[in-house]
Write a structure and sequence with these properties.
The protein is mainly beta. The chain has strands at residues 2-8, 14-16, 19-20, 28-33, 39-43, 56-63, 73-74, 79-89, 93-100, 111-112, 129-136. The strands form two sheets. Strands 3, 4, 5, 6, 7, 8, 9 and 10 form an eight-stranded antiparallel β-sheet that branches. Strands 2-1-11 form a three-stranded antiparallel β-sheet, with no helix packed on it.
């Protein structure tokens, strides 16, 4: 599988998109709250990451690692979510398009599996998103 490395021009925001079969909590995907920039790790064995699935995913918050900004940590399981649908995007890899979960940091349901290049950073609100290369899983 593949994904994209998404970075901010002003802050330490760093996101790898796509379905990772080798993540720290098992296979899954990282999504971001488009309102506050909190990254959320969804891990589990979804029946079909391309479409509807009632499989529950474990939810963990992504925690920046101050010693290695390119390798964030994930916290303990804080709940569960269901990825209702996803799509194979030629740029971002397999991304969820409908998730039954709200951001625990700001209570928003505005979760995204990708951020277009040139958009404002959801974390710092001042930087600009760029695509820093491909992530291969």
């Amino acid at each position: 599988m593949f994904g994209l490395h998404v970075i901010c021009s002003q802050c330490s925001f760093d996101l790898l998109t796509g379905w990772n079969h080798h993540g720290p909590g098992g296979p899954g995907v990282t999504v971001v709250c488009a309102d506050c920039g909190q990254q959320i790790d969804l891990t589990g064995d979804a029946d079909n990451p391309y479409g509807h699935s009632d499989a529950s995913c474990d939810v963990r918050l992504v925690i920046p690692n101050p010693d290695d900004t390119s390798d964030p940590d994930v916290g303990p399981v804080i709940g569960s979510a269901v990825i209702r649908s996803g799509q194979l995007d030629e740029t971002f890899g397999i991304i969820p398009t409908a998730i039954d979960f709200q951001c625990p940091s700001c209570d928003s349901a505005n979760l995204a599996g990708s951020i277009p290049e040139g958009d404002k950073c959801p974390a710092c609100k001042t930087g600009v998103i760029s695509h820093g290369g491909t992530a291969i899983y």
